[in-house]
Write a structure and sequence with these properties.
The complex is a heterodimer of chains A (447) and B (189). Chain A is α/β, with parallel strands linked by helices. Chain A has helices at residues 5-9, 41-51, 66-78, 89-100, 112-117, 119-128, 154-159, 176-193, 203-207, 246-266, 286-301, 319-326, 342-350, 369-382, 411-416, 432-435; strands spanning 36-40, 56-59, 82-85, 106-110, 132-138, 170-171, 196-202, 209-213, 270-273, 280-283, 306-311, 313-315, 331-336, 356-360. Chain B has a single domain (2-176), classed as 3-Layer(aba) Sandwich (Pyruvate-ferredoxin Oxidoreductase, domain 3). The chains are: A alpha/beta (447), B alpha/beta (189).
């Protein structure tokens, strides 16, 4: 249970059904460490990028990531590297596209509304296979929203920012120390697969200070036989996303899909805590995982066997591991600083094997550990087949499909009557898979 | 064990700085620390607060329902944070600016003439460092010497000429809240 953050980052792609060897969960720092310094998240991330060999940074100020840009403004010139405060987010990201096309190690950072402005260029970079790292220090939305921490850009980050069939690796740190390591990882993955990579942090990760070990990693430079570095003595190269001939574009897309498959297989990262004996599992990333960490300690004190599953790579999502975990636990609770975004991927991963409940806050609010414990209790008492006889106490009842289907009814009775009893929306999404089907499914058959 | 402290007052009263010094001191004692500012569009004159979490183990939630201690520098902060201090906790009140009392009989309410003591130290802006001294006297969250080291680290590097006044302000706050009610020196000191 004392693994360092980088050990947690090394969580392996699940190769078997059994997730018991999951790395222990560590949020950062080492007890009694020697070279610990107190660093602000934004500044630690910026310095980690410099130490990782970042050649050029482009940005435009926005809270809550402003200190990142400020740190780069001071430090990059000291290192004789490129720093440009662009005229806008569009300017910054397109400068990054140009710089990255030359094979430079390029960083851009912003916060939610700024990242929306960068969406188009992300699509172009994915299409033209340009490696680059974009950091989003998320704030409340939609629109200009607030400047407080949020995780409501999960969909944007994971499901695609711009148009077209593409995916981008997304890494989400839970501590400042882990963020520093993930900066190096992001550059590495970006160059290995010729793809933009997103580092998804939130306002607290950016603004908080935490002791960090001054240990940095500089990924090795790899051959870049595509980079535009001057065609002196060799045929010119072209970096583009335009392929007007349909056959060519399909060929290109097939190549991209092949690459995304490879990333899905090789770059899954996650961490776990108390998964060995967990009956219930909280799934959370970033700051929400820290809240969950405290909530789980309190729940365990109260006698509940709760574990934490923390995706570090949000894409590729650790679906196989969650599916394996779902074979052994009674329920999952997803906690996010959003209205519920990652919860959809968790439900897709577990495919109705167990109930998946959600608890989250929006708009810059952060759930308290006691709120999460309360949600766990609710899941424990209302959501589980083992205790199904207890009447559901739903926070937000989903729409029901007919007048006779009220939440007062026992779900089992509804299932026996062959009606579709419960909505596929909200916290009941797991239910129809085995309550409503006349064909006995895995769990519902004998009940 | 994990303990939480909230510093709150007007922007410009050195709220974030006081929390930073405490976090730095706790870190040098080997503790796990998390410092979270309230950040916003407000600057000088607006409200500001920061939370410091100090623990033996990994710090989890950055959100604190009931802080073990609160240091309040202005009336709105007293109104906001005094009611949520954990029972048995410590409430340090800037008596120079706050007339109201918390009305709580289950917390250790320490009233400190911050401005007068800061002036005595040589700079009446240093109410934050005075209050930090009072907090440390009543809680022993960290050893006083760790705070002095943190001041040397943080202030000494940037403004060495101000360091002596900061150290004096801290010691005056420490002394003002020592005596009856002060926390004993921890065994590990």
């Amino acid at each position: 249970m004392t693994a360092r953050p980088e050990a947690a980052v090394q969580g392996q792609v699940p190769t078997s059904e059994e997730p018991a060897e999951s790395p222990s969960f560590s949020l950062g720092g080492t007890p009694g460490g020697s070279r610990r310094v107190l660093m602000k998240g934004n500044e630690a991330i910026a310095e980690a990028a410099i130490q990782a060999g970042c050649d050029a940074y482009f940005g435009y100020p926005i809270t809550p990531q402003a200190e990142l840009l400020e740190w780069m403004a001071r430090r990059m010139p000291e290192e004789h590297r490129a720093f440009i405060q662009a005229e806008s987010e569009l300017g910054a990201i397109n400068m990054a596209l140009g710089a990255a096309a030359t094979g430079a190690r390029v960083l851009v950072s912003s916060s939610s509304p700024g990242v929306s402005l960068m969406a188009e260029a992300m699509s172009y970079m994915a299409g033209s296979e340009v490696p680059m790292v974009l950091i989003n220090v998320m704030r409340g939305g939609p629109g200009l929203g607030s400047i407080q921490p949020s995780q409501s850009d999960y969909f944007q980050a994971v499901k695609g920012h711009g148009h077209g069939d593409y995916r981008v690796p997304v890494f989400a740190p839970s501590s400042i120390g882990e963020a520093m390591e993930l900066v190096a990882t992001s550059f590495e993955v970006a160059e290995r697969y010729r793809t933009p990579v997103m580092l998804l942090a939130d306002g607290i990760m950016g603004q908080a200070m935490e002791p960090v070990e001054l240990r940095f990693r500089t990924p090795d430079r790899i051959e870049q036989p595509w980079a535009l570095e001057g065609a002196d003595g060799r045929p010119p190269r072209v970096v583009r996303s335009l392929h007007l001939v349909p056959e060519d574009l399909e060929e290109h897309n097939l190549h991209l899909q092949e690459k995304f498959r490879a990333i899905s297989e090789r770059e899954v990262r996650w961490a776990g805590e108390h998964l060995e004996d967990a009956e219930l599992v909280v799934v959370a990333y970033g700051t929400a995982a820290r809240v969950a960490h405290t909530a789980i300690a309190r729940a365990r004190e109260a006698g509940m066997n709760v574990g934490l599953f923390r995706p570090i790579s949000l894409w590729p999502f650790p679906s196989a591991l969650l599916a394996a975990l779902a074979e052994r636990v009674r329920g999952m609770l997803v906690v996010e600083l959003s209205a519920g975004q990652m919860v959809e991927d968790v439900r897709l991963a577990v495919e109705g094997r167990v109930p998946v409940a959600f608890d989250g806050r929006m708009g810059g609010m952060v759930p308290s550990p006691d709120e999460v414990v309360e949600a766990l209790r609710e899941l424990d008492t209302t959501g589980l087949p083992a205790k199904r006889s207890r009447r559901a106490r739903r926070r937000q009842p989903g729409p029901v499909s007919g007048p006779e289907h009220t939440h007062e009814r026992e779900p089992l009775a509804a299932a026996e009557s062959g009606h579709e009893a419960l909505s596929i929306f909200g916290d009941d999404a797991w239910m129809p898979l085995w309550y409503t089907s006349p064909v006995p499914s895995r769990k519902g058959g004998k009940r | 064990m994990e303990r939480s402290i909230i510093f709150a007052g007007f922007g410009g009263q050195g709220i974030l700085f006081a929390g930073h010094v405490l976090a730095q001191a706790a870190m040098t004692e080997g503790a796990q620390v998390l410092w979270i500012p309230s950040y916003g569009p407000e600057m000088r004159g607006g409200t500001a607060s920061c939370t410091v979490l100090i623990g033996d183990e990994t710090i989890g939630s950055p959100i604190v329902d009931h802080p073990d201690a609160a240091v309040v520098f202005n009336p709105p902060s007293l109104a906001k944070f005094a009611p949520i201090v954990a029972a048995g906790g410590v409430l340090v009140v800037n008596d120079s600016l706050i007339e109201a009392v918390s009305g709580r009989d289950d917390v250790d309410e320490v009233r400190v003439k911050c401005t007068a003591l800061a002036r005595e130290a040589g700079d009446d802006r240093l109410i934050n460092v005075v209050a930090l001294g009072a907090l440390v006297a009543r809680t022993r969250l960290v050893r006083p010497e760790s705070i002095r080291d943190a001041l040397r680290e943080i202030v000494g590097k940037k403004r060495p000429q101000a360091l002596e006044i900061d150290l004096r302000a801290f010691d005056l706050g420490l002394a003002a809240a020592s005596g009856a009610g002060a926390a004993p020196e921890p065994a590990t000191a």
